[in-house]
């Protein structure tokens, strides 16, 4: 985007638009209307550090105003503060703290196959740590289970933020929790919704060991090689190639899409130029597991879709937004289709996302179906 280019030059905008979480200390709810107004009125071309400083300043100002019952600062005072912050940002003080160093990237890949009912299922996965300072926050599950005469295949991507505790917890527990629901064999969608909710409650009650972080989730369960149940919260996505059609099996829960529910709960959605929409100026998705500090304004109920897997179903992709930010559904399917080996396909997808300069953690699972 041309505007973004200019801004980068002028303000040295160093944060990536990719970062899922925009970090500043949690703001008491009573200040949110004030912040809301301020963010909107000042959403000029600010760099990240400038915005953080401005928000903190505003917060301190509001506290002092409330405590002393003093007159709120007049417009020229705010303008003056703003000008100083601009100078500081321009010439010294904020650079570096938020810049991303390209830490050595690490990667993980693998594959597996099984016959499920009348369908041969094979999968491959590829996960690449992004160019961020923190450890990998994408986790995956790819597993076949035979239980009580049912064939089950599980696939999932969990994209964490503010730490890896929550996605790691989901990797260990979410599928078990789904299977633990009695209803799973009769009404899988209801079982999945209940299990998502119980899992989120468990995460929130594990204080303080799971920390402040959160995670998106996309889960796909194939029952007896014939029924595919896909659920998601957040912006991890799944697409299915069946016949000549590419179906998106998930809903991207971006803050603007869930805006009314966020506002009904007393939160707000920031739409800053050069940045993605964020819940309360912080989180870039409207639904997530965990996220204790934002939970009162977030949802964690999944959207669910089901499709029949028959001889026309060819492949399924699950991936984190590190992939979807740089390619659309059809492009991803085109790349995945090229190789019959799903592991090669998965690696080509993550390699292509890297080539397109995705800075986030990138992870994907490619599943191939073959009726027999
Ligand atoms: C899966 O297949 C087995 C045997 O073919 C059958 O007994 C079972 O009920 C099936 N499960 C579901 C959930 O349809």
Q: What name is given to the CATH topology of the largest domain?
A: Phosphatase 2c, domain 1
Helix/sheet category: alpha+beta
Tell me the number of strands.
15
CATH architecture of the largest domain: 4-Layer Sandwich
Number of domains: 2
User: What's the CATH C level of the largest domain?
Assistant: Alpha Beta
- Report helical residue fraction: 25-40%
Ligand roster: 2-acetamido-2-deoxy-beta-D-glucopyranose
Averaged pLDDT: 84
Strand content: 25-35%
Cα-based radius of gyration, to the nearest Å: 22 Å
The helix/strand series, from N terminus to C terminus, equals: HHHHEEEEHHEEEEEHEEEEEHHHE
Please describe the biggest sheet, giving its number of strands, its sense, and whether it closes into a barrel: 7 strands, antiparallel
CATH superfamily of the largest domain: PPM-type phosphatase domain
How far is it from the N-terminal to the C-terminal residue, by CA? Answer: 48 Å
Shape: globular
- Poorly predicted runs are 1-16, 92-104
Our count of helices gives 10
What does this structure look like?
The protein is an alpha+beta fold and 372 residues long. The chain has two domains: 2-91, no CATH class; 107-253 and 299-371, PPM-type phosphatase domain (Phosphatase 2c, domain 1, 4-Layer Sandwich). The chain is built from ten helices and 15 strands. It has helices at 2-11, 32-41, 48-68, 75-91, 165-180, 188-205, 259-264, 321-324, 329-337, 342-355, and strands at residues 107-116, 119-128, 138-147, 150-161, 214-215, 217-223, 227-233, 237-242, 245-248, 269-270, 278-279, 289-290, 303-308, 313-319, 362-371. Strands 3, 4, 5, 6, 7, 12 and 13 form a seven-stranded antiparallel sheet that branches. The chain has a six-stranded antiparallel sheet with strand order 1-2-15-14-8-9. Strand 1 (107-116) and strand 2 form a beta hairpin. Helix 2 (32-41) packs across helix 3. The longest helix is centred in the first third of the chain and has 21 residues, at 48-68. It is globular. The N and C termini lie far apart (48 Å). The site of 2-acetamido-2-deoxy-beta-D-glucopyranose has 5 residues, from loops. 2-acetamido-2-deoxy-beta-D-glucopyranose is lined by residues 149-150, 185, 223-224.
């Amino acid at each position: 985007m041309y505007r973004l280019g200019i801004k980068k030059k002028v303000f040295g905008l160093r944060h990536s638009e990719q970062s899922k979480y925009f970090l500043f200390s949690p703001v008491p709810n009573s200040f949110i209307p004030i912040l809301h107004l301020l963010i909107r009125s000042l959403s000029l071309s600010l760099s990240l550090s400038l915005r953080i400083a401005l928000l903190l300043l505003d917060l301190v100002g509001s506290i002092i105003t409330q405590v002393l019952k003093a007159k709120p600062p007049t417009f020229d005072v705010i303008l003056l503060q703003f000008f100083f912050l601009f100078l500081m940002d321009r010439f010294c003080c904020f650079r570096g703290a938020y810049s991303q160093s390209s830490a050595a990237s690490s990667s993980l890949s693998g594959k597996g196959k099984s016959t499920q009912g009348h369908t041969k299922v094979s999968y491959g996965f590829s996960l690449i740590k992004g160019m961020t300072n923190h450890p990998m926050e994408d986790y995956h599950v790819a597993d076949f289970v035979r239980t009580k005469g049912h064939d089950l295949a599980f696939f999932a991507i969990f994209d964490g933020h503010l730490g890896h505790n929550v996605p790691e917890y989901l990797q260990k527990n979410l599928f078990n929790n789904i299977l633990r629901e009695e209803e799973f064999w009769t009404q899988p969608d209801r079982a999945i919704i209940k299990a998502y909710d119980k899992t989120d409650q468990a995460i929130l009650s594990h204080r303080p060991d799971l920390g402040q972080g959160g995670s998106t989730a996309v889960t796909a369960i194939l029952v007896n090689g014939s029924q595919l149940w896909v659920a998601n919260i957040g912006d991890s996505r799944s697409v299915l190639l069946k016949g000549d059609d590419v179906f998106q099996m998930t809903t991207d829960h971006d803050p603007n899409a869930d805006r009314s529910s966020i506002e009904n709960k007393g939160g707000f959605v920031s739409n800053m130029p050069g940045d993605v929409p964020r819940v309360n100026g912080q989180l870039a998705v409207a639904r997530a597991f965990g996220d204790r500090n934002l939970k009162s304004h977030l949802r964690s109920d999944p959207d669910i879709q089901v499709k029949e897997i028959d001889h026309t179903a060819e492949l399924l992709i699950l991936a984190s937004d590190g992939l979807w930010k740089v390619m659309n559904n059809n492009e991803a399917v085109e790349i995945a289709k090229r190789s019959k080996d799903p592991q090669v396909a998965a690696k080509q997808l993550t390699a292509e996302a890297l080539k397109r300069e995705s800075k986030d953690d990138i992870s994907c699972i490619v599943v191939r179906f073959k009726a027999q």
